[in-house]
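EI: anyone free to look at a 421-residue chain?
SC: sure, send it
EI:
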Amino acid sequence: MPELVDGLDSKSSAFGHVGSSPTAPTAVMNTYSRFPLTLVRGSGCWVWDQKGRRYLDAVAGIATCSLGHSDRSMRRTLNRQLNRLQHVSNLYRIQEQEDLARWLVNHSCGDSVFFCNSGAEANEAAIKLARKHGHTRRNIDRPVILTAASSFHGRTLAAVTATGQPKYHRGFEPIVEGFDHFPFNDFEAFKDLFQRHESNGPSVAAILIEPLQGEGGVIPGDPDFFKKLRHLCNESNILLILDEVQVGMGRSGSWWGYEQLGIKPDAFTLAKGLGGGHAIGALVVQDHADVFEPGDHASTFGGNPFACRAGLTVACEIERRNLLQNIQDRGQQLCTGLNQLVQRYPQLLDGVRGWGLLQGLVLKASTAVTAPQLASAALDHELLLVAAGPAVLRMVPPLVIGSREVRQLLKRLDATLATVS
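SC: here you go
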């Protein structure tokens, strides 16, 4: 046993563990392919590594740090919350939870909210809701949930089965029964799959789908496709559940991705940007779809005072600073600049797609360069980017990014492209 000294073992110091350099041995399980970079400090859209180098952050914790790093309002309100109450469990009413739920209901099509800790947990709650709705409202013995190919819904076993990418299933068989997949934005293919499942009686409980596929390649939903899904669900008493984990809380330029599509879902899930970097997830449900009763679902940490205070701060600051307008303006600036890069590097780039401050730079199928390689090369130009599959480079900066920082992002990305091409 290592000798304990003032709560730290002899392999540690007050400033971090021995082995904190990118190449040193680690006690953390080997479940991530990490960049050779250790980040130690952040402010706004900028982060610093352990050597003092400053990077422009266009990842934001993967679309999570809505207000950027070390935001003054977050520091003030969360410090105040820590001095009051952090956690009490859901055995009792929690005022911060009530306040955040009321804000979400007042700003969306939902009527009530279940809180959890992550996007995967929010989607697990949605899956349970869909199954119970199928049992009680459509009298289905073995409900099926239809999801899209190339989707991503999380890493828990049911959520990863809902994810329409076989690479995430390998090694974890048998996957959970009760899911089937259709091509995104293809209503005729969806209708064929739906009719096959319904040919011998009610079978489909819900459709779980992203308004914009993030991990699948930054592919926006087609409004006509989603309107047809909405009509079919209305006719058949099937739930339409949207996974807003990546696009919700303003990232698309509107509060919710479904507003970009001209529809309203029966339920939708949130996480990532809701907490501004703190762990929280949510399932928002319309009254007619809420079949949960006490004991049906629960979470020890879900909706605790600290996490809900973080969510309330993000929500109120987006409103106070008029960040939805900033997202629209900076998103258009970024999109325009990315299209100029497509024209400058036609042998490498194929196009741009996305909404607001969720933009994807598409690589040509003929190029040997991959998006992960580009993200790695960008480190040399002090720029943090993230891939969305092998052929799309994703940009999801903090929602507070300014015009000057967008210009810096484009300049550093240009230098990266010049290097690899």
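EI: The longest helix spans residues 323-344.
SC: 👍
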